[in-house]
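Fold this: Interleukin-17 receptor C
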Amino acid sequence: MILVMTYGKGTLPSSQRIPEMQVLVLVLILAHLPSTWLLPETPVDSVSCTQGLGCQLLVEDAVCTQGAAEPVPEQDPVLVLIEMKTRTTLRCQQELDCIPCIQVMLHLGLLGAKQDRRSVKAGVQSSRHHKESLRTQIWLSAQTYPSFRCALVEVWFPHAHNSSLNLPSVRGGLSPAFLGSLHFDCFPVALSGELHLAAFTNPSYESVPVLKHTHHGPNCSWHNAKDRIQLCQGMSPCQHPVHPVPPTKAGINQTPFLIKTIPLLEVFTGAVEAVLKVWDFPVQKHFHLLLYLNQTRERKQLDVPKRLTGPENVSIPLSVVFPCLCLQIWPDAEDPPRIDVCPFARDKEALARAWAESRLELRIFDRTLSLSFSAPCDLPGELVPCWRMGLLACYPLHSRLRLALTPNELQEFPRLRPHPNLCVQARSNGSTRLQSCLQEDFPGSQQWRLLWETVGPQGNLSFRVLQQGSWIPIAQAFSARNSILREALQNDMKSGACVQVWGSEDGEMDVLWACPLEKYCRTYWGLAWMVALLGVFSILLVLVVKKETLKGWLRILKEDYSSGGTLQGRPILILYSPDDGSFERLVGILAAALARLQVSVSLELWRRVELGALGPMQWLHAQKHQVLKGGGAIVLLFSQGAVAGCAEWLGREKKGMLPPAHPDSTFLASLNCVMPDFLAGKARDNYMVACFEELLPATEIPGLFHSVPVYQLPSQLFNFLLALAGPRVGREQRSSLRRQVVWIGKSLERAVEECRLKRPSWQQTPLLPSELGDARMKGASGCPGTES
């Protein structure tokens, strides 16, 4: 109703004009208010937090990218993300005009240096005057093939609450302390659509991963959709927008979808082309159809809009059927609403076709490696630089070197320098889709080894080498025989002879070096040839000077073969405690003598590379299984260190705790393998115990090990060899073994004397008296291992 007021004829005096203007303004306001009330309210995004947290929405729609991850501060606590959850709701402009929307709930935690409560409280009180609360910014991104959107939220946590929390240690691997939750409302999603969600803080931290989640939108069978979403009103239960169905008998994929007020559309994907079937036209209505590729930067129109006047089949070449291929249809009217549908967004064949049409190119500009990725669609994935050795696989360089896939844009990895062995891979869902290398752009065919140098907190350097996709310490990468090569690599890295491939800018000082192997191989083989020629010359000199001695050696060699028939192929495993270098040399002499008698000897001293790769426990169990399966024996070679190790093992065993296997000494680990057999009384047939009488009397060996034969070397060497040979030893073979005992015994006597002279003074007294050892052995009989 409009109110009209009349003042009569004639001109009003000036005193009456002001009230007249006020009345007209009032009339206009009253006339405008109903229309204002009837306007639909545009929904806006909102955020809320649980009690104890504060939050506000800074930006609703922006472009977000994750920067380089930073180390977690060791002193000050920080707010981090713990978990992401989502649920489907409705966003409505009117009661019956709603769209599906995704609500996001983020759990937040507090991560900081490990402190006790008193130190935390003191730190809080000292920092309140300059910092009253912890603040952080959180990026929320929602991505689907038609769109990409980000929201920026600020969250703060009062410092005063920190005093009641026990903050976890950053380096201890503990989970952050839970503080509360953040609710974001909300991201729209298409019916039967797929929304890729991600959340990360600004700045992001190395030990805190990016939270990612994929949410699948509902279809018209959802109970809230039937009456409140216009696209689902009037549909039968079996009709849904963009709802895939199984392939037909003819092998054609069908994707029907129905939208009110437009024709029914069906997509058939065959072997040659895709066909869009347009039918069930509304009465006396014409439409326009447009095909386009929906990319982030722009919409690439494939053809001019096609006018549809009735049912028709529209052919679509398979060469343009990608996940981002969308259809836009609208009625032939003035300023009509347009409806967009992307029927191939979840089609695996369309995705594979998009990757097949993608290209990854590497370029070098002014000693800088640049790369460009071109694709018909925005594809999910990342760019990863890797290191290739010849025709072998390509292995990633460093966990920090990652870039998001950005089509048709020049990108660079910070501080990464070009190198012939450098490649870049485009990866998606854990698989490599594309790979491009620089090998063809560089002359020469040198082979390079990639090494990783790190500087520890104390300033000490450590080096690791890339082997078959894993970074292992350089001491394990090269065996003892290749010590010259290892030292040469370390010297070249320190002197700058190697090429730096990448270096970090933070306090950890990570540097990747590339060192050419051709140089070291030439040096190594040159030295090997010199050693070989020197060895041949020495042998010839010995043959000329000592002919009689040579005859004796030949006779002994002949006897080796006669006695080797008894011991040939008999496998044994020697377990010992490496007390010092001279004792290890003594053990090596004994093992070499047995090997000369054609015994198959397994010794930790000779297989440290294999042991380092497998680990002590796994290697020992494998060797024990192999020796016992071949009918061999396990020899426990006791020393002062072995006796002390047994005492330590039994003391811990009595408390129900096994000692850890130290990587530098495998004796405690070997006790974990053999002690159960001794405690169970199953050791007599498979074990032998020996000691060097000048270094350790047999009486000091713990009583538990006297359940098997104990041999004192070298005085009982002959009986020791007979026990290794077994009962089937003839008279001739026994004579041959006696002759072998002579030269083996002399070698052992010299080595024992050298070991005794070089032995430290603290090792001269027994570490474990025999009475105490026997008492501990008797006490060990009641441990859990005995009962089992």
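The longest strand covers residues 78-94. Residues 517-545 form the longest helix (29 residues).
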